Amino acid sequence: MATLDRMPLSPEDMVDLERYPITDGATGADTFLTNCRATFEKTGLCALPNFIQSNALDVLATEANTLSDAAFFCKSSHNAYLTDDDATLGESDVRRRQEETYVGSVAYDLIPEDAALRRLYQWDPLRDFIGGVLGKDALHRFADPFGACSINVFRDGGEHGWHFDESEFTVTLMLQRPDEGGAFEYVPMIRGRADETEIVERVLDGDRSGVVQLPFTAGTLLIFGGNQTIHRVTRVSGDRPRLVPVLCYAEQAGVTNSPEVRQLFWGRAE
Questions:
Q1: Rg for the chain, CA atoms, rounded
Q2: Which fold has domain 11-80+94-266?
Q3: What ranges do the domains of the chain cover?
Q4: What is the spatial distance between Cα 234 and Cα 180, in angstroms, rounded to a whole number?
Q5: Which of 185, 182, 224, 227 is nearest to 204 (CA)?
Q6: What pLDDT digit, counting tens, does each position of 48-82 carry?
Q7: Cα torsion for 19, 36, 242, 187, to the nearest 10°?
C-alpha cells in the first residue's frame, strides 16, 4: 500500500509529555502513574484528555480518515454479555434482550508501516505506562496482524449497543468526533454486584439514573476496564465519522485473535 503524506513525528512529538510524564525518569512520573492507577481502580477507567498534541492529532486524524474507506463493517445483534442466545431462559431474562451494533474496523495490516499511529502503538513507554495503570508487571503488544492496533469507524447510523467486554481491559484513542451522536456512556463497576441483573435491566429499559457520559475530546487516551462496566456508543449521524483506534495488549507474548473473530470483525481469517 502506498504511504501517506505526512510530517514525520516521533511518539515524543505526539504525546504531551509535560502534562503527562509517562517516560522513565520524567519529573513526577511515579506520582502521576500512582494517581492514574488509583483512578482506574476506583472508577474502572483512566481518561487522559489532550494526551495527543494538536499538531499530531491532525496527522493521526488525517491518516484515519484516509484509511476509513478500507474499514470492514459488521452489523449484529447481541445481548449485554455477548453470549449466545439461550432459549431455555425466559423471554424477559436480561440475557435474552438484544442490542444493535454497527461498526467498521480498519485492520492493522492495512495501516502503512510508516504511519504515525503505528509508531505510537510500537512505542515502549506507552505500553509500559498502560501496564502500570492496569497493575500489570508486563504487557506485550498483540501479535494479531489484523487486531493489534485497528481503527474503529462509526459512520452515519453506526452504534455499539450496551455490553460488557469479553477482554479485561481496552485501550482507545479518541481521534475524531462525529457530527452528532457517538457518545461513550457507561454504568461503572457493576459486574458481580448482588443487584447486577436489576441494574442491567434498568439500563436496557432506558433508565439513565446511573449512566455516566464521557465527553468525546479528540486526543484523549482511554484505558478502560470494560468487562466490569456496562457501556455503549450512541448512534452516530452525519457525514463526519467517529474515528477511534483500538490499541491491544496482552500479558503474554504472541497473543492473537481466533480465525472466527478475525472473520467477524475484518471479513477475513488470514
A1: 18
A2: Jelly Rolls (2.60.120)
A3: 11-80+94-266
A4: 10
A5: 185
A6: 999 999 999 999 999 999 999 999 999 999 999 99
A7: -150
